[in-house]
């Protein structure tokens, strides 16, 4: 469920009016913030905390206290004089070690340890542009991020970003991570807000619940907690025949790598068996390129796939266009097995009648990037959410609209549209969508519903990209699609630990 700023404020105020002390909420939020920072940056470095006068600043001070205990070198930067702080924020300032504030900002020299900024200036209650003192502080944060490769964590919402519209006012903080408290806020999921919000992390506060009638129940943020129970543990008597046999259909000449990446994604995603279905003139090159765990079979006609014993089909990675188009189209519309549809298979549908998928005898998962989406569903000029929901309803399929904030929409209006929370800009490289196609097909083949597989697959693929950068020393510029499946195991373990 997504709440707007007015709704979350009303829910908090009702709790407090009912006698709840707000201090435990602040302590719980601050502890969650510190935990999130430590998860992404387990080795302590330097923490620069920008503190506003309100409770957002108090949350930051509580988090800073916990991180300092863990060995972080911590500096405070107040956007206002101490006597202008709210009483509870003042109390948290006093608790933050001897009331001593460093009035000058001493920038650490570049080193192996991270430089982290906590944006505790303003919360969702702020309206309009940044006022004097706060504008200068926000500008300073953005400059530190640019000149010293600092990573900025915004608390609840980046200061200067409107919590309802997602509009960024002058000087708004550009965050790498936004740690939203209790519930995701409407403005954080607006398309235009992504460059200010960055990676969206939910800090759960179970005591703050939506009031009756509140919230956008048609949307949700995909997190480890929201995925709980989807990825069930395997039984002791599990064998490869019960984990799904996945067919990857594509990889024609010049594009062999796409099918191989999809196949590896499926294998690392838990598939029992993975076979690349190769057109006869591509067989030799695919058989040479595929790893030993992947089978490659040659066919004269893709129509033969209908008679093969596969559990799930993934059609499109490296497929290209050719005389086989009618055979592929028939599979997409008529095959009785679940199908993940990607790349050239999506373009094939777009050149024909996407609405024909409504009558498909088994679930379909469409995985377009923005360009493919425009070809499939040119009718809308609205948001990514509106586009995904429109295509899902038109085709009777689940739609996974790839992008900086992947959107998953169901054909059913009773199932909320999901916004994925994981990933980074390093995923903007060829082949990442192929690994995701393979991963989703493996999850479906293992018995997970198409919608749940899309949500889980998006989260795992994005989390793997985070591991590749934070733990494996890759950079966003150097990340390759083939790096992601290597980290699926870590991502699945994170899911079991309910990591952020």
Notes on the protein architecture:
With 500 residues, this protein is of the alpha/beta class. It has two domains: 5-217, Rossmann fold (3-Layer(aba) Sandwich), CATH 3.40.50.10260; 240-496, Ribokinase (UDP-N-acetylmuramoyl-L-alanine:D-glutamate ligase). The protein has helices at residues 5-17, 22-40, 55-69, 87-95, 134-147, 194-197, 256-268, 283-289, 325-334, 343-351, 370-376, 384-395, 432-445, 450-470, 488-496, and strands at 46-51, 73-78, 115-120, 151-155, 177-181, 199-203, 219-222, 245-249, 273-279, 295-299, 312-315, 339-341, 364-366, 398-401, 407-409, 417-420. The strands form two sheets. The protein has a ten-stranded mixed beta sheet. The protein has a six-stranded parallel beta sheet with strand order 2-1-3-4-5-6, with helices on both faces. The protein is elongated, with a radius of gyration of 24 Å.
> Can you identify the CATH class of the largest domain?
Alpha Beta
Name the shape in a single word: elongated
Average of the residue pLDDT scores = 94
| CATH superfamily placement of the largest domain | Ribokinase
CATH topology of the largest domain: UDP-N-acetylmuramoyl-L-alanine:D-glutamate ligase
Largest sheet entry:
10 strands, mixed
Could you say which structural class the secondary elements and strand pairing correspond to? alpha/beta
Give the percentage of residues in beta strands.
15-25%
Widest β-sheet, arrangement of strands: 7-16-15-14-13-12-11-8-9-10
Count of helical segments? 15
Give the domain tally.
2
DSSP strand tally: 16
Instruction: Report the uncertain regions.
Output: 99-105
């Amino acid at each position: 469920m997504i709440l707007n700023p007015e709704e979350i404020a009303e829910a908090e105020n009702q709790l407090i009016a009912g006698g709840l002390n707000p201090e435990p909420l602040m302590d719980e939020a601050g502890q969650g913030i510190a935990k999130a920072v430590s998860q992404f940056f387990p080795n302590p470095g330097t923490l620069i905390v920008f503190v506003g006068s309100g409770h957002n600043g108090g949350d930051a001070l509580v988090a800073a206290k916990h991180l300092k205990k863990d060995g972080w070198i911590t500096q405070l930067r107040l956007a206002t004089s101490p006597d202008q702080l709210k009483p509870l924020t003042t109390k948290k300032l006093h608790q933050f070690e001897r009331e001593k504030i460093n009035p000058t900002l001493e920038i650490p020299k570049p080193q192996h340890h991270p430089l982290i900024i906590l944006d505790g200036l303003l919360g969702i209650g702020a309206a309009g542009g940044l006022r004097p003192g706060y504008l200068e502080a926000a500008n300073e944060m953005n400059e530190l991020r640019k000149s010293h490769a600092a990573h900025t964590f915004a608390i609840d919402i980046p200061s200067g970003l409107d919590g309802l519209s997602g509009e960024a006012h002058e000087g708004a903080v550009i965050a790498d991570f936004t740690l939203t408290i209790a519930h995701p806020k409407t403005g954080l999921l607006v398309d235009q807000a992504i460059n200010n919000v960055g990676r969206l992390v939910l800090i759960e506060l179970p005591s703050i619940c939506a009031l009756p009638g509140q919230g956008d129940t048609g949307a949700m943020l995909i997190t480890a907690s929201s995925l709980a129970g989807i990825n069930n543990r395997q039984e002791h008597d599990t064998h490869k025949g019960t984990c799904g046999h996945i067919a990857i259909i594509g990889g024609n000449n010049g594009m062999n790598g796409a099918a191989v990446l999809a196949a590896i994604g499926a294998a690392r995603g838990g598939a029992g068996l993975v076979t690349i279905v190769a057109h006869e003139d591509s067989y030799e090159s695919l058989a040479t390129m595929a790893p030993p765990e992947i089978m490659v079979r040659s066919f004269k006609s893709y129509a033969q796939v209908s008679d093969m014993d596969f559990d799930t089909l993934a059609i499109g990675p490296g497929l290209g266009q050719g005389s086989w188009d009618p055979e592929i189209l028939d599979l997409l519309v008529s095959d009785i097995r679940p199908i993940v549809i990607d790349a050239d298979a999506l373009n094939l549908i777009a050149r024909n009648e996407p609405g024909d998928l409504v009558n498909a005898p088994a679930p379909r998962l469409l995985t377009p990037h923005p360009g493919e989406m425009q070809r499939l569903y040119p009718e809308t000029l609205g948001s990514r959410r509106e586009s995904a929901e429109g295509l899902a309803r038109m085709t009777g399929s689940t739609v996974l609209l790839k992008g900086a904030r992947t959107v998953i929409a169901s054909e059913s209006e009773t199932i909320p549209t999901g916004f994925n929370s994981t990933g980074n800009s390093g995923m903007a490289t060829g082949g990442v969508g192929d690994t995701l196609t393979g991963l989703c097909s493996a999850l479906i083949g293992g018995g997970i519903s198409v919608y749940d597989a899309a949500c889980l697959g998006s989260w795992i693929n994005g989390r793997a990209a985070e591991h590749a950068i934070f733990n494996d020393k890759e950079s966003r510029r150097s990340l390759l699609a083939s790096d992601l499946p290597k980290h699926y195991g870590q991502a699945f373990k994170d899911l079991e630990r309910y990591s952020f």
